[in-house]
């Protein structure tokens, strides 16, 4: 899992606001969508139809995770896979 300190500032800031223990202190869903983190996404992505792949948007691509580079033969349990992504 990627430590918060290794994430870009906008990502770290949003994650910290979403993960506050007390619900009253957390960022609302509406405010989260207005967070600067989402301004880093290509604008066409916001208007993409559900039937169109995000990879059709210029600037969107998959990046290899460091875990995959350093241990390409290592397999994870599928149930743990969503917990290892760092956006």
Give an overview of the whole structure:
With 87 residues, the protein is an all-alpha fold. It has one domain (4-71). The chain contains three helices and no strands. The longest helix is centred in the first third of the chain and has 10 residues, at 9-18. The protein starts with 8 loop residues before the first helix and ends in a 17-residue tail after the last helix. The model is unreliable at 82-87 (pLDDT under 50). InterPro entries: Kinase-like_dom_sf (IPR011009).
Summarize this structure briefly:
InterPro entries: Kinase-like_dom_sf. Helix content is 23%, strand content 0%. By secondary structure, the chain is mainly alpha-helical.
Number of helices: 3
> What structural category do the secondary elements indicate?
mainly alpha
Bulk shape: flat
Secondary structure tally: strands? 0
Q: How is the main sheet built?
A: none
Give the proportion of residues in helices.
10-25%
Q: Can you give the mean pLDDT?
A: 77
Number of domains: 1
The fraction of residues in strands falls at under 5%
What is the element string, with H for helices and E for strands?
Answer: HHH
User: What is the terminal separation in angstroms?
Assistant: 11 Å
Spans of 5+ residues with little confidence (pLDDT < 50)? 82-87
Taking all Cα atoms into account, the compactness measure Rg is: 16 Å
Protein name: Protein kinase domain-containing protein
């Amino acid at each position: 899992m990627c430590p918060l300190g290794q994430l870009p500032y906008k990502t770290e800031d949003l994650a910290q606001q979403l993960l506050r223990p007390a619900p009253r202190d957390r960022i609302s869903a509406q405010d989260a969508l207005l967070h600067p983190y989402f301004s880093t996404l290509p604008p066409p992505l916001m208007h993409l139809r559900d039937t169109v792949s995000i990879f059709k948007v210029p600037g969107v691509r998959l990046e290899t995770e460091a875990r995959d580079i350093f241990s390409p033969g290592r397999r994870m349990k599928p149930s743990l896979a969503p917990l290892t992504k760092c956006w």
